[in-house]
User: Which sequence fits this backbone?
DNA sequence: AATTAGCACTCAAACCAAAAGAGTGCTAAC
DNA sequence: GTTAGCACTCTTTTGGTTTGAGTGCTAATT
């Protein structure tokens, strides 16, 4: 357990480093946090904190910079949260209560405001696989294809087609539609994935169109897989505002990381309550960056996560406050719509 | 008009500069292009080319680098085109003849291969506004909304919904659908934009549902507007492979340029035949970069453009050859599908 | 026992001067 | 018209010196 003074010093180092991106000296700490101590005393404490693994000295005549461990304890215990100004809060509220037609639009707006206000790339994950199927429609498009539409309790999936077999009548299409509805209505989108096509059953009813049915089911599976989760990233270029990415080699590394959609999804997809901070090597993907996230409602019955990603030396006070605030506003906005 | 020797020298400077990114000296030119001249002779020529505006000398004791004008004449007259190896051609063919279900998939594949093979960000513009409407469908989703589907001769637009008025019967939906088809079938998607809603006509037929009809037409307009052109950009991070973007300030500038979708669209959207090269300040947007593009077929009756964007000092020989080849393969692939 | 003043020490960063090297332009000869 | 030769310019490299920030340690102080 750290003494009060050690905490104060550690906090001052992290705060200072976040602000200046340079090693922090004993003298600076004295001035900013402990004017009643001498710099020598602080030096002793710094030395202790270093051997405890919280601080790093780039070279002997430099100040100290925080280790990953220091950022961790800073975020968890030391920092005092920032309160967003009323203007800022109002701005966010205004932006997020704007009338939107689709969830996608909402996602876009959330990502935009998050990125603008934190000056970091914003991540928004939409989870879709728990919707319950209300009905399935097969729409003959008169061009030999049918549009497969899945209506769920909160949205409409409509990106799949099936080729119709020759000599297919609209009556048969209707039968197929009925059959699909009988089986799938009430199930979850994600249930498609585990569904095994019952050849014998259909063989009896539709004979030759067995293959066609199988194809529809496969289409539905594919559709549900591609729509089970969707990650939007907005404002990648914001990282150029931060000194750690002055060297474009570093910028490339960062952008490559953000591009690893599946891995980022995994990081965002955890059901921990409240705002979570993942730092640097705590997760192999993050090497050199941190991620701040929170679970949110993106629409009626549509849940997801929002977050930002950026350098380990990000302004956690502010970023955590923003992510927290936006997620709360979002939940409020969504729930007041009912 | 340039003498043969001047051409040879200018070509050597551009070739050398493209390869090494450093100023090219008289000696190098002698070795690479004119072993029968002395470096002094070449120096005289270089001096002449400089005063003609083709070359720039960064400082007195440096070699020459090409001006924008030099790149222009190089691309138009001097360079000898590269021939893609058979392996490479086969690779592209294989990649582009792979079975795809939608135009979007095709666009993705084209962009991917283009970017990978040129080591530059790839641009693919899909033009959609000339499709001819085959039919319009209104599909009752049982949740108070109807899905508006526009079927054209080559694709299906299906991203729009309308809220159904209360007490709306499926019979009325059918009537509405018939009415829409009567008016719009045979027209082009782009025609929606100029269509004025004929209040009186509908008033007679459907009385109270006037507003609803207007809403459908507005929806159709919006749909056709958002789908009239679509730009995909793939492989932005490829620019980090090029020395001009070692400084991340430059990289940011470039990425900001690429982000200006509308302006990039304008550059891609011109109906010049064959492969076109736009260099640097020839277009205000391009400041510091060049763009190589070609018009292509992306599907039956779907035209568009493909291109890459990168530093002025890009390998035009190769890039032009690649863009050319891919556009030809694409046209071949699409036409052989019929 | 904790704190602090004082000082020696280290090391990065800034500075400067000299040397090396690349490449030119010009002149005079071919 | 071409070229050898040379003086000149300017960048780049090198290496050494200085400066200054900041520490760790010791010894004195509270």
Assistant:
């Amino acid at each position: 357990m750290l003494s009060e003074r050690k905490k104060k010093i550690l906090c001052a180092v992290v705060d200072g480093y976040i602000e200046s991106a340079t090693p922090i000296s004993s003298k600076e700490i004295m001035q900013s946090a402990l004017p009643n101590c001498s710099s020598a005393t602080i030096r002793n404490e710094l030395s202790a904190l270093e051997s405890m693994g919280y601080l790093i000295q780039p070279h002997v005549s430099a100040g100290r910079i925080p280790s990953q461990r220091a950022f961790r304890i800073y975020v968890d215990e030391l920092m005092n949260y920032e309160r967003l100004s009323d203007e800022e809060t109002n701005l966010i509220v205004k932006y997020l209560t704007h009338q939107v037609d689709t969830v996608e639009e909402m996602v876009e707006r959330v990502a935009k405001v998050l990125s603008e206000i934190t000056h970091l790339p914003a991540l928004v994950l939409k989870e879709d696989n728990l919707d319950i199927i209300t009905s399935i429609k097969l729409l003959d498009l008169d061009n030999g294809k049918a549009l497969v539409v899945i209506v769920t309790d909160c949205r409409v999936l409509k990106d799949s087609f099936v080729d119709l077999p020759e000599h297919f009548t609209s009556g048969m299409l209707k039968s197929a539609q009925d059959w699909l509805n009988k089986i799938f209505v009430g199930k979850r989108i994600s249930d498609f994935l585990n569904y095994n096509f019952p050849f014998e059953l259909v063989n009896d009813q539709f004979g030759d169109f067995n293959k066609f049915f199988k194809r529809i089911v496969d289409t539905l599976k594919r559709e549900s897989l591609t729509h089970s989760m969707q990650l939007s990233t907005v404002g990648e270029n914001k990282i150029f505002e931060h000194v750690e990415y002055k060297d474009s080699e570093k910028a490339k590394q960062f952008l490559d990381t953000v591009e690893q959609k599946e891995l980022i999804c995994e990081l965002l997809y955890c059901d921990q309550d409240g705002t979570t901070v993942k730092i640097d090597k705590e997760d192999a993907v993050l090497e050199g960056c941190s991620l701040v996230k929170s679970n949110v409602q993106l629409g009626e019955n549509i849940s997801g996560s929002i977050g930002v990603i950026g350098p380990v030396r990000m302004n956690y006070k502010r970023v955590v406050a923003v992510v927290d605030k936006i997620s709360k506003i979002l939940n409020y906005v969504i729930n007041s719509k009912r």
